[in-house]
Design goal:
Pfam families: Aldo_ket_red
Structural class: alpha/beta
Shape: globular
Number of helices: 10
Helix content: 40-55%
Strand content: 15-25%
Organism: Flavisolibacter tropicus
CATH architecture: Alpha-Beta Barrel
Protein name: Aldo/keto reductase
Distance between the termini: 30 Å
Number of strands: 10
Radius of gyration: 18 Å
CATH superfamily: NADP-dependent oxidoreductase domain
Strand order of the largest sheet: 3-4-5-6-7-8-9-10
Order of helices and strands: EEEHEHEHEHEHEHEHHEHH
CATH class: Alpha Beta
CATH topology: TIM Barrel
Largest sheet: 8 strands, parallel
Number of domains: 1
Length: about 270
């Protein structure tokens, strides 16, 4: 799988990771847990590492912790979660709970979810980073209405990661957010790459263009993901899935070759004609 550099450290990350919203918010069902374990195993097999979660995602953090703790490759993953509350004390309590649920002594990335009380939490995260409890600090949002504020924070504060929505259909981030992150040396995680599944509804029953195979595109999910990671500012995309077959498709989108600017324009034309 292709790798991209985290600008603040020089560490490299695979370009495709895994989101856990909804898919990992499950109970004790052995069948569901076995399926998610296979998703995690396929991730590692295909060179992926990043697992992104949040206290907002119900039981997802605890399920990630439970499942990875039974894998010999548990320490090979890059664990990212978030703080999603107001106030310093509440934030620290939630962060400590996340460490416990995900069974981590050190968290790779701690992000401020949807910019909730971000000034307060940013001070906390910096302290935790100095103490060695977290390795990277980030901010997140899922909607284009917050893109300007994400940019403002990047201009004013030193952070390692920014996470936001971007897809072949929702390209608002191309106006300035992606270039700002690149210019400020901030790593980029992309959420909502499939527009909560609406992109698949748009292409249902439609065939891929013949030339797509030349770029290792054998499914619509790979078509959508390749468009995103073709942008050089993108560090990693985190599509969510509980289906091992879909996970493999997603991971294989991170392999060479990537479409160039001309092919990306052709990809947009394909979508516009559907």
């Amino acid at each position: 799988m292709l790798q991209r550099i985290i600008p603040s450290s020089g560490e490299s990350l695979p370009v495709i990771g895994l989101g856990t919203w909804q898919q990992f918010d499950i109970g004790a069902s052995a069948q569901e847990r076995q399926q998610l374990t296979e998703v995690l195993t396929q991730m590692a097999t295909h060179g992926s590492r990043v697992i992104d979660s949040s206290p907002m995602y119900g039981r997802a953090e605890a399920v990630v912790g439970d499942l990875t703790s039974h894998l010999l490759i548990a320490d090979d993953f890059f664990y990212a979660t978030k703080v999603w509350t107001t106030g310093k004390a509440s934030g620290l309590q939630q962060i400590n709970s996340s460490f416990q649920k995900m069974r981590r002594q050190t968290m790779d990335l701690l992000q401020i979810h949807n910019l909730v009380d971000w000034q307060t939490h940013l001070r906390t995260l910096r302290q935790l980073k100095e103490e060695g409890r977290i390795r990277y600090i980030g901010i997140t949002h899922y909607h284009r209405s917050a893109h300007a504020q994400l940019e403002q924070v990047m201009h004013e504060e030193p952070i390692d990661f920014v996470q936001f929505n971007y897809s072949i259909q929702e390209r608002h981030a191309e106006q300035s957010l992606l270039s700002t992150a690149q210019a400020r040396g901030v790593a980029v995680l992309i959420n909502e790459p499939f527009e909560t599944g609406t992109l698949f509804k748009r292409v249902k029953g439609k065939s891929l263009p013949a030339w797509a195979e030349d770029y290792g595109i054998n499914s619509w999910s790979q078509f959508f993901l390749k468009y995103i990671i073709a942008h050089p500012a993108v560090t990693c995309v985190i599509p969510g899935t509980s289906n091992p077959k879909n996970a493999v498709e997603n991971m294989e989108a991170g392999n060479d070759p990537l479409p160039d600017e001309a092919i990306c324009r052709k990809m947009l034309q394909v979508l516009e004609k559907l």
